[in-house]
Amino acid sequence: MIALYFIAIFTGVVVAHELGHYIFARFFGVRILEFAIGFGPKLFSIKGKETTFSIRLIPLGGYVKMAGENLETLDEHAEDIPKEQLFNTKPSWQRFLIAFSGPLFSILAGFLIFAIAGAIWGFPEVIIERVQPNSPAYYAGLQSGDRIVSINGGTVIESSTLSRKVKTGRALTLDIERNGELIEVDIQPRLLPEGAVFVLGDVEGSPGKKLVSIDGVLVDNGYSAIAQSLRQGEIVELVFEDGKKVRATMEYLSLTEPYFALGIYYASFEPEFNIDARNFKAGDRIVRINDFPVRDGLDFSYLIQSISADQSTMYLYFTGNMLEQVVTGLPEDLEIEVLRNGQLVTIRMSKSEFISILEEPNVFKRGFDYWYPGNVFEAFSLGVKWATELLRTMVVVISNLFTGQASLREFTGPVGIVKLVGDAAKAGIKMVILLVGLITLNLGVINLLPLPALDGGRMILALVEMVIRRRIDPKVEAYIQTIGFFILIGIILYITAIDVGRFLGR
Fold first, then answer.
1. Which sign does the torsion angle of CA 436, 440, 443, 445 carry?
2. Where in the cell is it found (predicted)?
3. CB 233 within 8 A of CB 249
4. Are the C-beta atoms of 116 and 110 separated by less than 8 Å?
């Protein structure tokens, strides 16, 4: 069943993308030789007047084959097809638009999907999970459970909308819904110092609240300069103001630059079971795992981040030199205390059993609900805004890849998408539709990258021709596209290997 979902989703996504190329190519008079869904041997085909429409064995993409698109088709059809119908003979601006039309149609299809989803199901609430003490949100009176309705008069659909506004550092006016009442709050973001997350192994000692030095170097001026001297696998010593020390092996260090913040955490899910799972019952709320109390979804998310680590591993979360959170790896035997029908119940199980429960889709209750606007037309327009916010976030993530702020390891390939499709299918049709929208938007954004073998690469070559006012040698272009194709295949194989590693739990 999951395979059928996967094939159906990929087919729909590919058709939307390739339809853009097909329509624009036909509009500019280019002969289309084949419109294919999938790669490899043909499974089914229909021969039209000029175009063969086919379905191929491997459902991992598709293509529109245009006469004169590359050297092979140029030579093969040079005599049979009029010159004016060859892609290679079209002006640069037309070839640019033909290449651009695929990503454009993908993005438009993604917008349409989210608009329809919004009109049918509404939009996820942006709920405050927790407010940090002594933060702007704390002094403005924001509370856990508040729903953020609007920012400066604009409706909030995605938490990323608020995050982006906060990053500017400018004062904000928030409309907050609390117990059915709308409250207006004026709030000024605060610039937080550089932050750090230390992952330490073989830990000796215990941390204090305020960090003074790392290996004898004061941290008052931030972590960046110190981080250059820290090496994975080497011993590091952290000294705190109250005289406490931590001596351990450095396993990983992640730094965040100074940024403006309100001091709030958004709700994503609650440590409450949504379904029966092994010894747990729907409605059970986790309140403790071993010695770690679980107050809310934030505490639970910290635990989940460290659950695969062993007991000797410690996670230290710092904002500036102040320690915000300490999480240690869990032992193999877990004691999980849940609140069930007002009574505390203790359940014992192995860590591997608990991890397998965590991997089940829809196992925990969402920390937010869905809301619906006044009418279907407003819902449709807000769906477009929803897609816009997601598209903006995708562009930022992709750009971070080129600046070194993101890694290919954070991306998902075909194997990972199969798992996502399976999880979405188990969570219901709504999640499947939203996943289709995300994949469609992603396909549009990724294909705009200025890399050979992608539509963005063709667009760049066409732009170069428009600037230099002459045609690039088709042989040179073919070589560039071929090299780009092999690079792209290498990237896909690399991401696939990472996906397989995730699937196997490595």
1. negative
2. Membrane
3. yes
4. no
Place of tokens 């084959």: 65
Of 22, 186, 115, residue with least CA distance to 380: 115
Q: Which of 18, 158, 465, 477 is catalytic?
A: 18
Structure tokens at 125: 């609430």
For the ranges 80-84, 299-303, 446-450, which has the lowest average pLDDT? 80-84
| Token pair for 469 | 């006012």
What are the tens digits of pLDDT across the range 398-455?
777 666 665 555 556 555 555 555 565 566 778 888 888 888 898 888 888 888 778 8
Q: Which H or E run contains 23?
A: helix 2-27
Maximal CA-CA distance, the chain? 85
Return the higher-pLDDT residue of 78 and 261. Answer: 261
State pLDDT tens for residues 346-368.
999 999 899 889 888 789 998 99
The H or E element spanning position 380 is: helix 376-403
Q: SS3 string of 456-496?
A: HHHHHHHHHHHHHCCCCCHHHHHHHHHHHHHHHHHHHHHHH
Q: Please tell me the CATH superfamily of domain 124-190, with its number.
A: PDZ domain (2.30.42.10)
Instruction: Identify the residue whose tokens are 């979804």.
Output: 297
- The angle that helices 92-121 and 429-447 make with each other, rounded to 10 degrees, is 160
Burial zone of 374 (CB within 10 Å; 0-12 exposed, 13-18 middle, 19+ buried): exposed
In order, the DSSP letters of 414-469 are HHHHHHHHHHHHHH-HHHHHHHHHHHHHHHHHHHTSS-TTSHHHHHHHHHHHHHHT
Residue with structure tokens 């280019």? 30
Left (φ > 0), alpha (ψ -120 to 50) or beta: where does 499 sit? alpha
The pLDDT value given to residue 76:
55
Q: The tokens of 324 are what?
A: 């915000």
76 assigned to active site: no
The pTM (predicted TM-score) of the whole model is 0.77
Q: Where are the alpha helices (DSSP H) in 122-250?
A: 136-140, 159-167, 224-227
Residue 23 exposed, middle or buried by CB count within 10 Å (0-12, 13-18, 19+): middle
Domain ranges for the chain, please list them.
90-122+374-506, 124-190, 194-257+269-355
